[in-house]
Here is the input.
Amino acid sequence: MCLAIPALLVQRGPGDQAVVDLGGIRKPVSVALVPDAREGDYVIVHVGHAIGVVDPEEAARTLALFAELGHTPTETSA
Here is the structure.
């Protein structure tokens, strides 16, 4: 099963590199597939790649669902 989660794009780097915030954890990602994404946008992240830009309200709803399930995007289960 694959999982893509919304994350806040907090920094654009050189080339196609960026940094996103996932529940307080910052991770480097590639934004090659979403070249128009800007700092402050929510992007959908899958295996280190931003694959789409998502509306902030939709991102909030999705993250709230994770919270209801008792999981945050930064937690993993065995």
Q: What stands out?
A: The mean pLDDT is 88. The helical segments are 56-68.
